[in-house]
């Protein structure tokens, strides 16, 4: 799948979130699609950072995202994996998962920036 198609899918997902009042900044593409190693079996891996997740358990965060993930998967027929984070978690968590996420690509409906995301600047 080419970069334009990935961008289109992520833009759709972000726009659906924003329609429901969930502002996210940044959205980070990580994993095989960000490194150019995706295969036909690969899913799209993204992390989304939002102030709306502050004080919410992960189960509630996934509940907030669920219908938007389903809508995106149904429209584009590709597996889609989303990790919801607060800015604090993004900035402070020390884990291999966060190393992958921080090394990803910032995605936004209007721009793509191939750099390390910094939610503190958002």
Short description:
The chain is of the alpha+beta class and 122 residues long.
Fold and architecture overview:
The protein is of the alpha+beta class. It has a single domain (3-107), classed as Beta Polymerase, domain 2, CATH 3.30.460.10. 43% of the residues lie in helices and 17% in strands. The chain is built from 5 helices and 5 strands. It has helices at 3-19, 32-35, 58-76, 87-92, 96-102; strands spanning 27-30, 44-49, 80-85, 105-107, 112-113. It has a 5-stranded mixed β-sheet, with helices on both faces. Strand 2, helix 3 and strand 3 (80-85) form a beta-alpha-beta unit. Helix 1 packs across helix 3. It is globular and about 35 Å long.
Element order: H for helix, E for strand: HEHEHEHHEE
State the separation between the terminal residues, measured CA to CA: 29 Å
Structural class: alpha+beta
Beta-strand content: 15-25%
CATH architecture: 2-Layer Sandwich
Strands across the major sheet, in which order? 3-2-1-4-5
Q: Which radius of gyration do the C-alpha atoms yield?
A: 13 Å
The outline comes out as: globular
Write down the domain tally.
1
- Fourth-level CATH superfamily: Beta Polymerase, domain 2
Q: Low-confidence stretches at least 5 residues in length (pLDDT < 50)? A: 112-117
Mean pLDDT: 87
Largest sheet: 5 strands, mixed
**How many β strands by DSSP?**
5
């Amino acid at each position: 799948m080419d970069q334009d198609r990935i961008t289109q899918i992520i833009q759709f997902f972000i726009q659906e979130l924003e329609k429901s009042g969930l502002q996210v900044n940044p959205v980070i593409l990580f994993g095989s699609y960000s490194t150019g190693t995706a295969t036909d079996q690969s899913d799209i891996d993204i992390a989304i950072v939002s102030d709306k997740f502050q004080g919410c358990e992960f189960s509630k965060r996934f509940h907030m995202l669920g219908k938007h993930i389903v809508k995106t998967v149904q429209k584009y027929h590709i597996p889609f994996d989303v990790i919801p984070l607060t800015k604090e978690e993004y900035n402070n968590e020390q884990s291999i998962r966060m190393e992958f996420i921080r090394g990803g690509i910032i995605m936004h409906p209007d721009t793509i920036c191939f750099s390390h995301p910094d939610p503190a600047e958002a």
